[in-house]
Specification:
This protein has 345 residues and is α/β, with parallel strands linked by helices. Helices cover 23% and strands 23% of the residues. Strand 2 and strand 3 form a beta hairpin.
């Protein structure tokens, strides 16, 4: 198995080893399972159908580290991010933050917890209230959590945050419509940083931006991470962006969601995990990457509300055999830090 794009010789990416401390991760997810109800047995009947949005996902993120979470649309990336922030309740598994189990936290303890865990949303146009000024948008979290008694008290803090995110001070009294998409996303970052959190979930923050803006956003996020010792879960579907900002990368393969992140490199996926290979191949900036070919007739997508007993991806895997549809492949470490769930790789 060859790797794609060793980051150690590239000046435009982080070269320091991530501060990985497996014994004390900041965020730990263990066997996460999330399901959504989709049907009942009759009008008054019991809930009988569920979409398995996330199935048996485990990972850990060390303080000051960036974990890139990559996958096709609908693979469960944003669902995982929302679950980690406790905006969704998992059907099974545990979520830990700073060594404490937060899976079932609610009420005031959850509200206090969210001061340490914030999100940068995907759409910078929809995530900002057009009726509010930048001062009101960024200072609102401070007001909600009782750190200021009125919006004007936060003017100096907001001005400092805007400067740190690369925005001029005079932006503080303007409305979102006066800014470009990249500038709006920086306002979203400033709002997420207002409470000085330790952990940020960035949910596809560059997907709605122009390609020319992506490098500036990545540079801004890396600088802030170094200055404030931030920890990121960076969600995206484009490896060309994630490989420049992440210390480690985890790939979600459609309904075949079992997997763990590899360290520091984007590796070419084996044919057994051909969706990972397809993602690598789709990155035109990956050295030596090629789009994998899948022989045979067209295959069916896995049905999330009808999980199979075997490998979830057997219906469209080019090397699947009969026992793949009956036997669940174990998750094995094929190389140091690189895990694959497949019976034949």
């Amino acid at each position: 198995m060859s790797h794609v794009g060793d980051r150690s010789n590239r000046p435009d990416v982080l070269t320091a080893e991530p501060p990985v401390t497996p014994s004390s991760p900041l965020v730990a997810v263990d066997h996460l399972d999330i399901r959504f109800p989709v049907g009942r047995a009759g009008f008054w009947g019991r809930q009988t159908k569920f979409v398995h949005a996330v199935d048996d996902v485990s990972f850990a993120i060390a303080p000051g580290e960036t974990l890139g979470l990559v996958g096709e649309s609908g693979s469960g990336k944003s669902t995982i991010g929302r679950a980690v922030l406790r905006r969704l309740t998992p059907a099974a598994g545990t979520i830990s933050f700073q060594g404490q189990d937060i899976t079932n936290v609610s009420g005031e303890p959850l509200r206090q917890l969210r001061r340490q865990m914030q999100m940068v949303f995907q759409d910078p146009y929809a995530s900002l209230n057009p009726r509010m000024t930048v001062l009101e948008l960024v200072a609102e979290p401070l007001l909600v959590h009782g750190m200021i008694s009125r919006i004007d008290e936060g003017r100096d803090q907001v001005a400092s945050l805007l400067q740190r995110c690369g925005l001029p001070i005079d932006a503080i009294d303007r409305h979102p419509h006066a800014f470009s998409g990249g500038q709006r996303q920086r306002i979203g970052i400033a709002r997420a940083l207002a409470l000085r959190p330790e952990f940020i979930v960035a949910d596809e923050p560059v997907s709605a931006l122009d390609v020319s803006v992506e490098p500036r956003w990545s540079t801004c996020s890396r600088i802030l991470q170094g200055e404030l010792r931030l920890t990121y879960l960076f969600i995206a579907h484009d490896l060309s962006v994630v490989r420049h900002i992440s210390h480690r990368i985890a790939i979600l393969c459609g309904q075949a969601r079992r997997g763990r992140p590899g360290r520091r490199r984007v590796r070419r996926a084996a044919p057994s995990v051909h969706r990972g290979a397809a993602l690598v191949g789709s990155d035109s900036r990956s050295v030596g990457a090629t789009q994998p070919t899948a022989p045979g007739a067209a295959r069916r997508d896995p049905q999330p509300h009808r999980p199979t007993a075997g490998c979830r991806f057997a219906s469209r895997c080019p090397i699947a055999r009969d026992n793949c549809r009956e036997e669940q492949p174990p998750l094995l470490e094929k190389e140091p830090g690189h895990f694959v769930a497949c019976l034949y790789r």
